[in-house]
Amino acid sequence: MQKILDRMGTPKLIYCDEGSEFNNREFKKLCDDNKIEIIFSLSHAPVVERANRTIKAMLYRYLESTNSKTFINVLPSILKAYNTSYHTTIKMSPTEALDEKNHRTVLHNIVQRSRIINRPKIEVGDLVRFRIKPKTYDKKYKSQFSKTIHKVDSITDRYYIIDGRKYLRANIIPVQES
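^ thats the sequence. predicted structure below, dont judge the formating
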């Protein structure tokens, strides 16, 4: 990971799932040492999932067209094709998006494609439930939020602190006092 940071630069934050590759002492220390904030998603990281799906599709097309079972030799070419192709959301290729002069445009294009959800305001002292991480085979009809009710202890930057743990606004819902 340090090699990636050296090559690509150090981000202010990393948005990731709670996989063991991110949720471990070594990765957390690397982020602390580089002043990178980690935001753990309780569900999945849709941008990464979409990228993975596209790259897998490119690999499968290659394997089918060549009747091969080996892709390691063509992986660099596939990644280059992915990184130099036009992406609808950012309206340019990822390679072009790396150019600092394009950063504002990329952000603007991402925001334009985003679904902005207006959620009820939550303040310190409000009662909430928090999103629970689904288990692999959980049914969709099961509640996605905790049964227990908690009080918001404090709010810092984009986080709501509840029982000493940080939550993004998307991962908590207000509860009406009864």
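The beta strands are 13-16, 37-40, 127-130, 150-151, 154-156, 159-162, 165-168, 172-174.
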